[in-house]
Amino acid sequence: MRFLHPPPVRRLPLTGEQPATVVGGEAANGFVSAPRRRVGASPLAVERMNVDQLSIAYGPKLAVDTVSLPIRQGEVLALIGPSGCGKTTLLRSLNRLTELTKTASMKGRITLDGVDTATLEPTALRRRVTMVFQQPNPFPMSVFDNVAYVLREQASRRPKKRVLHGAVASALERAGLYDEVKGDLSHPALRLSGGQQQRLCIARALAADPEVLLLDEPCSALDPQSTQVIEDLIVQLREQVAVVIVTHNLQQAYRIADYVAFMYLGELVEYGPADQVFGSPREQRTAEYVSGGFG
Amino acid sequence: MSAAAPPAAPVPPPTEPAQRRSARDSSASWRLSDRIGLAFAWTLGIGFLIVTAAIVLYMMVQGLRFIRPALFVTSPAAGFSESETGGFLDPLLGTIVVAAMAMAIAFPLGLAIAVWLSEYGRPSALARATESTVEMLAGTPSIVFALFGTLLFEQGALALFSRTNDGVVYGRSFFAAAAMLSLVALPLVVANVREGLQAIPGHVREASYAVGKTKLTTTRRVLLPAARPSVVTGAMLGVGRIIGDTAIIVLLLGATLRFNPAGDVPLLSELRGTGSTLTSFVYANAPTGEANQPTKAYAAGFVLLSMVLLLNVAVDVAARRGRRWR
């Protein structure tokens, strides 16, 4: 069912309706020439998820308005846009976390490797499309158990420690945390530093061997140094999993993303390679946002 | 008049935010009404402290005067002098038994209700009704539970749980007392566990759902361990309430100071029979009571008070440890 009463969508006063003419390069945003984490063209990209005509509303309020975009392994996709533009909602809909909100309703189709996610068990889907949150949120248990929790069958305590050790170590390794914690895997996770906690959360998300990794502003609660470590990590991870990251930080999006989707008031305004979106955006609104005009 | 004096304390550099002054510095510059209020608060606070300390100290002194190791290992007996009336072995065991039985009911039930209210809450009408019911239980005087319990356990269908003579169900037993006492402890368990669960930020739950775990798994493996201090607090406060309750014990456990088994089955007969706890022992031995052995009452009261104080300390320790969620 389509929304009966689509809410009014406020639009920016545009100077002209024609596709925007954009001020190029440095004049628009000084960071375009800044160093980037990713180097060279993205490796061979494989499409893992596809979002088709997706609309999500909380009660009568439309949060995501007919958005379509692909999500590919081998690329980092950054969702950018001002607060409340629906990027987090879009991200959460990818592993059906939006369903936890009672008032949320969804229209459209999301596929994972060609299969409609609506037909999958939510728990099975969420093991294949895992998520890392804004606040580091390790569980109140040891570093080892945080990762092992994901590997074990629901609430069971099996298999035992020894059997899981390899898988836990490899997940911690992929999250770049293993060297720091290998001395004492029984250390309480809540006593790690903020950046380590967030990498533990990434390790937890990777432990299930997902196809897609969703990151919801993973660095916004961290200091610049931890941020740098995690950004490096994200760029490395894109070859193993499809990475989607929501970020408020345009510089961050520019540093790590291969593709950028700019959302505004629930609409997908522009989707394209990072260089194009930041360097020569097609839409006036994108140009204004990436140059700090609003948001 | 200094009533409306501006904050006159020396604030060194004007660029820095005003430094926090000590209470003594600032109260001198307060308005008169505020200073009267402050004095009133201090007086009342100290007054209550004195009253509490007086009760505790008096009971400690009296208790220590009259307590003997022998009291812990001898059963109460009928008699006229101190040397004849024995100790409080049976009441002490009775207290432990009744607390264990009541918590065996109240703890799992309270935990389940709290988890359901906090994590599921559906159907919401039923959840709201349960919430107010639990609040109502918390406000009900225990003598009302006791009265209800006597009516309930006198029913023929519940004859298994107490002594029966010629088809008349006596209605008083450890079972009856524990069942009603569990209602006293239930609201404390529910409130504390629920509070602990609700203090856990929502994104912690979502982090568990986001790796494919179900709600039940999340609750068992993440939320309840995170809320452990609150769970322990709830259980201990519940035990404290149970061992301190008198009305239910007097009405439902009966007036026998010794264990008075009903039947032949070893353990069951004791639980079906009547007995006493420290509270009913104090009640019976108080100067107004039937046994009237005040020194025994003081000793038992001292033991009871120590148990409750220890529980409170344990609650404090449990609550202070591991409140690591923002």
From TrEMBL, chain A:
Domain of life: Bacteria
InterPro entries: AAA+_ATPase (IPR003593), ABC_transporter-like_ATP-bd (IPR003439), ABC_transporter-like_CS (IPR017871), P-loop_NTPase (IPR027417), PstB-like (IPR005670)
Coiled coil stretches, renumbered: none
CDD domains: ABC_PstB_phosphate_transporter
Domain ABC transporter as annotated: residue spans: 49-290
Keyword Hydrolase: no
Protein name: Phosphate ABC transporter ATP-binding protein
TrEMBL record, chain B:
Segments forming domain ABC transmembrane type-1: 92-315
Keyword annotations of the record: Membrane, Transmembrane, Transmembrane helix, Transport
Keyword match Transport: yes
Main location, first listed in the record: membrane
Membrane topology, from the record: Multi-pass membrane protein
Domain of life: Bacteria
UniProt biased composition (Pro residues): 7-16
A Pfam family the protein falls into: BPD_transp_1
Chain residue ranges for the region called Disordered: 1-26
Alphabetized PROSITE patterns for the sequence: ABC_TM1
UniProt xrefs under InterPro entries: MetI-like, MetI-like_sf
Transmembrane segments: 36-61, 92-117, 137-161, 173-193, 230-257, 297-319
Compartmental location: Cell membrane; Membrane
UniProt cross-references to PANTHER family, sorted A to Z: PHOSPHATE TRANSPORT SYSTEM PERMEASE PROTEIN PSTA-RELATED
UniProt similarity note: Belongs to the binding-protein-dependent transport system permease family.
Listed name of the protein: ABC transporter permease subunit
